[in-house]
Amino acid sequence: MASSAHHQMRSKLSVAAAVLLLCAAGACLLSSSAEARPHHHSESDFYSIVGYSPEDLASHDRLIKLFEEWVAKHRKAYASFEEKLRRFEVFKDNLKHIDEINREVSSYWLGLNAFADLTNDEFKATYLGMINQNTPASRRSSSGSFRYAGVAAGELPKEVDWRKKGAVTEVKNQGQCGSCWAFSTVAAVEGINAIVTGNLTSLSEQELIDCSTDGNNGCNGGVMDYAFSYIAGSGGLHTEEAYPYLMEEGECDHKDDEQQAVVTISGYEDVPAGDEAALVKALAHQPVSVAIEASGRHFQFYSGGVFDGPCGAELDHGVAAVGYGSSKGQDYIVVKNSWGSHWGEKGYIRMKRGTGKRDGLCGINKMASYPTKDH
């Protein structure tokens, strides 16, 4: 028979689930685009951003209440009460980690997000999707040219944001499919297409998952260069509307309807590896596909600020660099992720540049590439 404590816990969780509403506006916001660290404002402002307060950590009843609010906000459903209890324990451990880091670091902050009931191992197994770069032939050779090599550093603008230039679509969500490589590829192609044609068109990740199979493995990972090769060789990529995302692998449908619009590219080029200056040169001209190590617990719960690690350089996640700039003396690259708009800064992360490391923060300088498109 369950203990009285167990009954009490069940009762509190059940009652809270029945009566608590979603977080009030601003009370559990998980992302911030503010330039200044919220600590520089009031404590209440900061804790409204990260989704908890110190009082939540001091009371078991407050923890239960916070968990139920979080469950409702993210529409979580568990198969059994025992599973819910297990997730509550994971949630508590993650919250403790988030609070510890927020007390230690000053350039960025962590917050409760949709991954808060997942252990880091579970998170890593589900939400990444780069093929292991240590495997043979993990990267297809491009033309070998780098068209921005001759651009002088002094000619570059101090900051670039392709979102403001109309070359970045809304943040998307790969869900529980290791298809980050497809989202990274699509973001870069959407960008160059908008720059060349003036039309920002949301394109199909699902087509890449289903059809770009020469070296790529659908929801089990892939490489952006392979996907660029597929698009260049297949006649183009269909729109998101024509070939919508399913969050799973499907049969390749080339949609041979003449009425279906496609976006083409002429090829792709690799940014010289380990060369941050070259990456910035490319990024000044167009959004760029980059690979990073995103499996760390700090990255999992990133909520805002200029992220400076810790992280390694074992590439496991494909994302898109869409700008660069500086904040309070810290240079950064703006990165578009594919975990939805409630992660990070409305779906984005600012990653520190100028670290002095050849590979860059989280390996961002190791494997950057971009599509080319004839004018």
From TrEMBL:
Cross-referenced Gene3D superfamilies: Cysteine proteinases (3.90.70.10)
GO molecular function, one term: cysteine-type peptidase activity
Localization in the cell: Cell membrane; Vacuole
Signal peptide: 1-36
Residue span(s) of domain Cathepsin propeptide inhibitor: 67-123
SUPFAM superfamilies (alphabetical): Cysteine proteinases
Pfam families listed in its UniProt record: Inhibitor_I29 (PF08246), Peptidase_C1 (PF00112)
GO BP term (any one): proteolysis
InterPro entries: Papain-like_cys_pep_sf (IPR038765), Pept_asp_AS (IPR025661), Pept_cys_AS (IPR000169), Pept_his_AS (IPR025660), Peptidase_C1A (IPR013128), Peptidase_C1A_C (IPR000668), Peptidase_C1A_papain-like (IPR039417), Prot_inhib_I29 (IPR013201)
Keywords: Cell membrane, Disulfide bond, Glycoprotein, Hydrolase, Membrane, Protease, Signal, Vacuole
Limits of the Peptidase C1A papain C-terminal domain: 156-372
Top-rank lineage group of the source organism: Eukaryota
GO CC annotation terms, alphabetical: plasma membrane; vacuole
Protein family according to the UniProt entry: Belongs to the peptidase C1 family.
Protein name: Uncharacterized protein
Species name: Paspalum notatum var. saurae
Lineage per the UniProt record: Eukaryota, Viridiplantae, Streptophyta, Embryophyta, Tracheophyta
